[in-house]
Every structure is written in structure tokens, then in C-alpha cells.
Write a structure and sequence with these properties.
The complex is a heterodimer. By secondary structure, chain A is mostly beta strands. Chain A has 1 helix and 10 strands, in the order αββββββββββ. Helix content of chain A is about 15%, strand content about 45%. By secondary structure, chain B is mainly beta. Chain B has one domain. Chain B contains 1 helix and 16 strands. In chain B, strands 2, 6, 8, 12, 13 and 15 form a 6-stranded antiparallel beta sheet that branches. A 3-stranded antiparallel beta sheet of chain B has the order 14-9-16, with no helix packed on it. Chain B has a two-stranded antiparallel ribbon with strand order 3-4. The chains are: A mainly beta, B mainly beta. Strand 3 of chain A pairs parallel with strand 1 of chain B, so a sheet runs across the interface.
Chain lengths: ~160, ~210
């Protein structure tokens, strides 16, 4: 094999590698840039669901807060995949968060340690804006002070 | 293959630049208490019907008329109340029997496990009549029960001490109630008259 032939072969391998790149990227989960996302209030004040306790221990605190979501989807523009809202495990208070949307994202619910699908399909715009109306429920036995709930979005590209 | 590695690095940079949004949660009313001695008020129905507790300034009376022939006999005299609270405002269950029992109940809400709420009673040393004669408050005692109850009462039987004393406690996130049946010990001969004294019940939380 001549030097020239080896060079051509190397170029061909590089070319195959580039062609194979999308398949490798598909295995990646993108952490979506949501730094422009803002809750309407930094702190959600939760009320007792039942003003007085009962023998059945109705000890749920509940409240709501709106979140103006603005996602930078530029890295996955024109790709297809699934967008998830993620709530990593955190704190000691059992919580359950559900939400309604204005239609661009799916409504759903989530608990710490889980992620929930909020969109599936092609990304056709570099930015996605939506308002989530969060409804938060927490166990009143385990919320002695303030607890942060840190959410983020992930995108699984096809 | 180098190009592939470059693409992967690019993905990693996107992940590193991404943020997260935080919603802090806290209780609006971490601690709430409700105490009812005698009559009380819930607006909007009972608790189980969605009602909420409200202030009721009524001070109920527990009294007894001791027949002249019985004064100082040592035979305890059962007392009655003018309270109309026989039903628990929790669920309208007829918990106390009127007029022989005084309803005492309440609840304690808290998001922190810092202990139970404590019910104390403050009684003066004596009941007193219009001419200054006295009866020690220690002459008044009570038993405790409640219709349908089989276990220990949250506010058990006792006697006034003529000062500050603990009546019972309410565990965190619990509703507690008892019916007190008061009696006058009638162990001393006292001058005729109407003897009065006020007991103040106070529910406090840690």
C-alpha cells in the first residue's frame, strides 16, 4: 500500500467517523439551558390542606406557584427527541409536584428522584417559552423550615 | 474519529453551561392551635365539613347548688354547666353529655417535631362570695370521659390546685378532646352565699 493510498484510507475513515457522529450523540442526554426560567415567586408558601388535623392524619401542605419557562434549545435545534422536567432527590421533605401548562409542554407530575416527559418531537425553534402552573404538596411533618426544590430540564435526542 | 470526539465535547460544554430553576417551599402557618372550653365556633360547618375555627368569647359557667342539709357533709356534689357544647366540632359527634359535662378540646398543627402543645389551667386560690368568705378551689375536681372513648383521655381526671397546673397535652398534628364532669367536694361547712371564681385555660406550643 502506497503512502497516498494510506492517506486516502485515513480520510475515508475520518469521513465514516463524521457520518457516525449523530448516532453517538443520540446516546447523550442534553442538560437544557434554562437559566432564563423564572418562578413568579422565589418562595411558595404552603398551607395546610386541612386546617385542623384529623385522626387519619391529614398533614399535607399545599401551595402553588407559576414558573415562566424559557429554554435555550439551540444545541438541539432541528433534532427530534424527548424533553423532560427533572427533580433530583433533595432534602428530607416528601413532595409531589404537579403542573398545568398552556399547551406547548405537557402537564404532569413529579416527585424527587424522577423525571417526567413534557415534550416529544422535533425541535423547530431555538427557544421554547411556556408557563407552568406548579401545584406543590409536601408532608407537613417534615417541613420545619425552607426547602429548595431545584428543577432542571433534560433533552434526550433521537 | 477525532471529529466524533469533538462532537461529544461540545455536548459536554452545553451541559456545563445549563442552569436550573429553584422554587423554595415553606409553610405559611407552620404552627396553628385551637382551644375550646365549653362552647366554641367553627365557621362554615364542622371541621370535617370544611369549616374553620373562629373566636368565641363565651365564658361558660359550671355550678352547683348545695342544699342546706348537705353543706359540709363530705358528700361530693355534682356540678353542671351552662355550656351547650355536647357535639364535637370535629364531626358533630355527640361526645359530651349535658349538662353534666364540659367539653374541652382543640388541635395543634406544627411542621416541626418540637414537642406537644400543653394545656394548663390557672385557678385562683379560692372561690369567694360577696362578703369575702372563701372556698378553696381545691374543693373542685373532675373526672374525664367521652362518649365512645375507650382509651386514656388527653385531658385526664384531676383537681384544681388553686394556681397553675397542667391539664393535658395535644400531640403534634392531632385533635384532642375530653368531657370533664366537675364536682364540689363539700368537705367543709361554709357560710351561705354564691361563691365564684374563674379558671383560665391556656394552650401553649413549644
Amino acid at each position: 500500500m502506497t503512502t497516498a493510498t494510506r492517506s486516502l484510507l485515513a480520510s475515508a475513515l475520518v469521513g465514516l467517523g463524521v457520518l457516525a457522529a449523530p448516532a453517538l450523540v443520540a446516546a447523550e442526554t442534553f442538560r437544557v439551558d434554562d437559566t432564563a426560567t423564572l418562578p413568579s415567586e422565589t418562595t411558595a408558601l404552603l398551607r395546610w390542606r386541612d386546617f385542623a388535623p384529623s385522626g387519619a392524619a391529614q398533614e399535607t401542605l399545599e401551595g402553588s406557584v407559576a414558573v415562566a419557562v424559557r429554554l435555550n434549545l439551540t444545541p438541539v435545534l432541528n433534532r427530534t427527541g424527548r424533553l423532560y422536567l427533572v427533580l433530583p432527590k433533595q432534602g428530607t421533605t416528601p413532595v409531589r409536584v404537579s403542573w398545568a401548562t398552556q399547551g406547548r409542554l405537557l402537564p404532569g407530575e413529579i416527585s424527587p428522584g424522577l423525571r417526567t416527559l413534557v415534550y416529544q418531537g422535533p425541535v423547530t425553534s431555538p427557544y421554547l417559552e411556556e408557563t407552568l402552573a406548579l401545584r406543590i404538596e409536601a408532608d407537613g411533618n417534615f417541613l420545619p423550615g425552607m426547602q429548595p426544590l431545584d428543577f432542571h430540564f433534560e433533552f434526550d435526542a433521537d | 474519529m477525532i471529529a466524533v470526539v469533538g462532537a461529544c465535547m461540545s455536548v459536554a460544554l452545553v451541559a456545563g453551561d445549563a442552569g436550573a430553576f429553584t422554587v423554595n417551599i415553606t409553610a405559611r402557618n407552620p404552627r396553628t392551635i385551637y382551644l375550646q372550653v365549653g362552647v366554641g365556633t367553627f365557621t362554615g360547618g364542622t371541621y370535617t365539613a370544611g369549616g374553620s375555627p373562629a373566636n368565641n368569647p363565651t365564658v361558660n359557667v359550671v355550678s352547683v347548688n348545695v342544699p342546706a342539709a348537705q353543706i359540709g357533709s363530705g358528700t361530693a356534689q355534682a356540678m353542671t354547666t351552662n355550656s351547650t357544647a355536647s357535639q364535637s366540632l370535629y364531626d358533630n359527634f355527640t361526645f359530651c353529655n349535658l349538662p353534666g359535662q364540659l367539653y374541652i378540646g382543640g388541635f395543634y398543627r406544627s411542621t416541626s417535631n418540637s414537642g406537644a402543645a400543653t394545656l394548663i389551667a390557672t385557678s385562683p386560690a379560692n372561690l369567694i362570695n360577696s362578703t369575702g368568705n372563701t372556698i378553696p378551689f381545691t374543693q373542685i375536681r373532675w373526672t374525664s370521659s367521652g362518649n365512645g372513648d375507650t382509651g386514656a383521655q388527653p385531658f385526664p381526671a384531676g383537681a384544681f390546685v388553686g394556681g397553675v397546673q397542667t391539664i393535658g397535652s395535644i400531640s403534634r398534628n392531632q385533635w384532642a378532646e375530653s368531657c370533664h364532669s366537675f364536682s364540689y367536694s363539700n368537705s367543709a361547712v361554709v357560710a351561705a352565699g354564691t361563691y365564684t371564681g374563674r379558671v383560665t385555660y391556656t394552650l401553649s406550643v413549644p
